[in-house]
Amino acid sequence: VGSDGLLYALGIDADADPLPPAGDTDAIDLRKLISLDHLTRTASRRAFDDALARQLERCRRDVLPLSVAIIDLDRFKHYNDTYGHLAGDQCLVTVARALQRRASREGELVGRFGGDEFLVLWPGIDVTTAIRNAEIPAEGSSETGRGDLDDDAVLGIVRREVKQRRDSIDA
Question: End-to-end distance of the chain based on CA atoms, in angstroms?
């Protein structure tokens, strides 16, 4: 319903390509918009999934380790309820920036997985280094001036060890 009180309908063609052609200037802006989380300016889930697929293939080809960190801010609802949603948003931005400082090499990427969950992609990084790199949520939360999130993050690291690729069989 518009401000004039009339009901408007939006028609969507289910068979149409969801994105305009890549050469279209408007399409470039649209692709940028869907590739970033609007609050944290980290990769969107879709962009992260695409980057993960590319890096997984590269690490297989080059026989490199690949680590992915999953970081969940524990008790974040309590933080939002206590300090308000604007402070919660600022906390998410601060944590995202802290993670981005640890994932700045080519191919590394931080993405927002959900409300208070982040993913970090570290191609070519072993699990020990990934764990060390990911130990920053408490550092990020202390930058907000509120200590309530210190040590209140759940961290998971997934690693993919790639074995030497065999393109031919020795006789």
Answer: 73
Task: Place 164 in a pLDDT band, splitting at 50, 70 and 90.
Answer: low
Q: Report the candidate in 146, 148, 130, 150 with the shortest Cα–Cα distance to residue 138.
A: 150
Region label for 103, one of left (φ > 0), alpha (ψ between -120 and 50) or beta (otherwise)? beta
d(CA 55, CA 117) in angstroms, rounded, equals 21
pLDDT tens sequence across 4-41: 554 444 443 445 455 555 566 666 677 777 889 989 99
Which has the closest alpha carbon to 111: 168, 31, 35? 35
Rounded distance between C-alpha atoms, residue 81 and residue 126, angstroms: 37
pLDDT at 22: 58
Q: Is 102 exposed, middle or buried (0-12, 13-18, 19+ CB in 10 A)?
A: buried
Q: Would you call 35 exposed, middle or buried from its count of C-beta atoms within 10 A (0-12, 13-18, 19+)?
A: middle
pLDDT, tens only, 22-31: 566 666 677 7
The Cβ of residue 103 has, within 10 Å, a number of other Cβ atoms equal to 21
Nearest alpha-carbon partner for 140 in 120, 125, 124, 166? 120
